[in-house]
Fold this protein.
Amino acid sequence: MAFVEENEVSVNSQGGTEITKRSIGKYIPEELAEDFQIIPSRIRDLKEDKIRIYWAHDLPEDPECSKFADENFRNKFHKIVFSSHWQMNEFITKLRIPFSSKLEVIETPIEPFELVDKPKDKIRLIYFSTPHRGLDILVPVFKHLCEKHNDIHLDVFSSFKIYGWEEADKQFEPLYDEIRNHPQMTYHGFAQQDELRKAIQQAHILAYPSKWKETSCRVLMESMSAGLLCVHSNIAALPDTAGGLTSMYQYSDDIREHGPTFASYLNFGIEKI
């Protein structure tokens, strides 16, 4: 996987970007890979003797990306690849990048899931993203729905340990404790891919009230592949990812609107499983 570069931030991470770039290596012939320098997200040095590709995974507001407003800097690359059409259009609009053949959208690949029989005794919901993307909305909504449904259970796989940032979990410990102390919720923290994939396969519903501007969403792709009903907001690139095949609702910055809207869609999904 040397043809897709690591940096000081990514080297200890097992996030979606890192899983993707490390997994595609087995599909690239070594003799072809030697001709390319593929840089995801953070540029540290450029190799003049390579075909240089910038693979964007962040937002144009990110300091690492804002330099692409400079035409001379853009011209150092043969291609600029984006993870979604929404992300590309954000770069074009906010950094005043002209439309050209230099730009390309290649959607995030995943390893497909084998469809298996789901549990019959309970309706299992799952959340498997970092906590700041909507876990604080999900937990009170789920607790409220438990008053109506005694046959639902929520599995939460969420921790900044996925990026090697254990200290960042401290601010979310009260929320994690709420989950630990509820009989219809289980907090799993960070899990390796094999364990997580099995849990995704056994789930019925992805409960994902996202409030984070994702440039693409591996969580949603994997859930769809595993046959889950996906209940989520339409913020940022989630509509691109969903392709109109999910239970998607209008996002609101106002949590007083977001929470009840998500609860309504999630309740409808539970009743239809």
Notes: Residues 255-272 form the longest helix (18 residues). Residues 135 and 222 are 18 Å apart (CA to CA).
